[in-house]
Write a structure and sequence with these properties.
With 636 residues, the chain is of the alpha/beta class. Helix content is 22%, strand content 22%. The chain contains 16 helices and 27 strands. Strands 11-12-15-16-17-18-19-20 form an eight-stranded parallel β-barrel. A five-stranded antiparallel sheet has the order 21-22-23-27-25. Strands 3-5-8-7 form a four-stranded antiparallel sheet, with helices on one face. Helix 7 links the parallel strand 17 and strand 18. Helix 5 packs parallel to helix 6 and helix 11 packs parallel to helix 14. The chain is globular, with a radius of gyration of 27 Å.
């Protein structure tokens, strides 16, 4: 027997239907049911969002087999929604069930699929320090299917010349180049959001979601996305889904008729966030400022979701679980993490990890403050007792230190490579260094090629650090070949350049070895020496292919040594191995002060240069050239 729950009162629903097959199907009376399907053996409670004209007047039951039943029905503010609690027992048979809607002698049915859960799904393992993540903006990576560049059911059409427009890259383009990604040494792929973004302009980035359960048709289909994940797995590549819980887009279908008035945060006039993350941990912060930080809209085209509404929170919990189970995902990257209400998001993380204990979630907590960043990592000993349950955090302080320290020749106090030393000296603040995502660039900040002023030697320094430092490295597509922005003056659209060779008719093809070797023009049209692009690519590939099996890099400890001459030295070590990294970021040659490292060098033997493969014996007489890196691996 079903029940209708309204303002705390419970009324009895209709009994079972004797012959559900005799009932007519919904035929448009039910517009949407989300999640789209479910599975047996799940821990996560199932609450269906049902949308349809006047649907709140109906009672609901489930027919079609034993072990699946309606346990509660919740009306929303809008009469066009019902939230239906459905219990799926452990012994429920997989198959097609029917949601039966009844009112005043009228009944109709809607099919709902309960599938068998894949064996071992709950024990999947997420991305770790053993991985290198390759970040892709799909619209700008490769166009594998030109037929879906523009579609009749989406607002913005493709225009490759549009600075902030859609260029036509898609999921098939990623699939077509999985071999390139794997060959580079990557073991995980993070595409920026692929769900429908139907804003009239600027929809290429995907961060203004218009439908949380469907891939944007200009990128592909749900089925193609699932196939992409499967094909990536076959090549040893994990897949991380970029998700946004803080906001949707103004083009989202529910914006025309919100389920509840407080489904999103609403104001009398447009009110943006104050971007004051400190209000989340500041003991002196006002409630006024905290409310603006959590509730203000990110931008006018991105309404702020209200996770304090329990129906919104449950919606996002099971949405996350649905995509993991449906597509076979290995991780989430959560956009604009501190903009969310922190307690509901803590519950969201805990719910996902309860279903998948080995899963990994990394949050974009964009702050230069190391203590504030540490606050967001789950398990951190925060004074206010708050635990985010967020496993991993993006190391923005390190990114900032690299961006400021590597491009300069300054020996002044606190500048140059000392910035990196100083940043890492704060590692005592963090709860778990193995769950920090390190990066030199991504889709929201200047390309590292721009920051380094197109200097290939300094790019090698950056890639060496990415391959040998603690944490989980992430490389932005094209940074392995020092891609630079098309036009930095116009913002993000310029750094999100097309990958040469990803479109039919491209004069350059950086996906192919031959194309890289022949290239003598950089992505901004400035000439570069022939072969330089290939050399940078091969250097990066060698480092990350080597890193794959180097457990001391994945799990080892760090000891580093400070100097004031724009050099930096550190060791990664464990009980059996050590890797020595010496970075000379100065203009002149430097002797390695090997004797200064006596506390760690005793017992090291069998030195091998990681890049050349040659045996090497480092001593005080070893010379490293200007803006060069020496990486030597040892046994202990």
């Amino acid at each position: 027997m079903s029940s209708v729950i309204v303002a705390g009162a419970v009324s009895c629903g209709t009994g079972p239907v004797s012959d559900v097959s005799s009932l007519p199907e919904a035929d448009g009376k039910v517009r949407r049911v989300e999640p789209l399907s479910w599975w047996t053996g799940m821990k996560t409670p199932l609450q269906l969002l049902v949308q349809g004209e006047g649907i709140s007047a109906f009672e609901v039951a489930v027919e079609g087999g034993k072990g699946v039943k309606v346990t509660g029905i919740h009306k929303a503010d809008s009469p066009n929604y019902l939230f239906v609690d459905v219990a799926v027992s452990q012994n429920a048979a997989p198959g097609t069930y029917w949601l039966v809607f009844s009112r005043d002698g009228e009944s109709f049915r809607y099919p709902y699929e309960i599938a068998s859960r894949t064996a071992g799904s709950a024990s999947r393992k997420g991305f770790t320090t053993a991985d290198m993540i390759y970040l892709i903006m799909p619209d700008r990576f490769a166009n594998g299917d030109p037929t879906n560049d523009s579609t009749t059911d989406t607002a913005e059409k493709a225009d490759r010349d549009a600075f902030f427009g859609r260029h036509g890259g898609d999921i098939q383009g990623i699939v077509d180049h999985l071999d390139y990604i794997a060959d580079l040494g990557a073991t995980a792929i993070w595409p920026t959001p692929l769900l429908l973004d139907n804003e009239p302009e600027g929809s290429y980035h995907g961060y203004a979601c218009a439908d949380y359960y469907h891939i944007d048709p200009r990128f592909g289909t749900n089925e193609l996305y699932r196939d992409f994940v499967s094909m990536a797995h076959e090549k040893g590549l994990k897949v991380i889904m970029d998700v946004v819980t803080n906001h949707c887009g103004t083009a989202h279908w529910w914006m025309e008729d919100l389920p509840f008035r407080d489904w999103i945060h609403q104001f009398d006039e447009y009110t943006g966030t104050n971007v004051c993350f400190s209000t989340n941990m500041d003991p002196n912060a006002s409630k006024y400022d905290l409310n603006l930080q959590e509730s203000g809209w990110f931008v006018p085209s991105m309404p702020d979701m209200n996770l304090d509404n329990p129906f919104v929170l449950d919606y996002f919990k099971q949405w996350a679980v649905w995509w993991i189970e449906y597509a076979g995902l290995d991780g989430f990257r959560v956009d604009t993490y501190p903009y969310n209400e922190k307690v509901p998001m803590s519950e969201w993380c805990a719910a996902v990890l309860d279903e998948y204990p080995g899963f990994n979630i990394v949050g974009e907590c964009w702050t230069s403050s190391i203590p504030q960043l540490a606050y967001w990592q789950g398990g951190n000993g925060n004074k206010d007792g708050f635990d985010s349950h967020l496993p991993s955090i993006m190391d923005f302080p390190l990114q900032e230190a690299i961006g400021r320290g590597v491009p300069t020749d300054s020996h002044n106090w606190g500048e140059g490579m000392v910035r990196i030393y100083d940043c890492l000296s704060h590692d005592f603040v963090y709860h778990d260094l193995s769950k920090m995502l390190i990066f030199a660039g991504n889709h929201d900040i200047d390309r590292i090629g721009d920051v380094l002023r197109h200097n290939p030697d300094r790019l090698r320094i950056v890639m060496a650090m990415m391959a040998t430092m603690r944490g989980i490295p992430q490389i932005f597509y094209g940074d392995e070949m020092m891609f630079v922005s098309k036009d930095r003056s116009q913002g993000h659209g310029g750094l999100r350049v097309d990958f040469p060779g990803g479109w039919a008719g491209d004069s350059l093809d950086f996906f192919s070895e031959e194309g890289r070797a022949a290239a003598c023009v950089s992505t901004d049209g400035k000439p570069v020496p022939q072969g330089q692009i290939a050399e940078l690519h091969d250097y990066t590939r060698k480092l990350f292919q080597w890193r794959k099996t180097k457990k001391v890099i994945h799990d080892g400890k760090t000891v580093h040594f400070m100097t004031r001459d724009n050099t930096y030295a550190y060791f990664r070590y464990d009980a059996t191995d050590a890797v020595f990294v010496y970075i000379n970021n100065s203009r002149g040659k430097k002797h390695v002060p090997w004797s200064h490292y006596a506390e760690i060098t005793g017992g090291l033997h069998g030195g091998r240069d990681v890049i050349t493969g040659e045996s090497v014996e480092v001593s005080d007489s070893t010379v490293v050239g200007p803006r060069q890196v020496l990486i030597v691996e040892y046994s202990r």
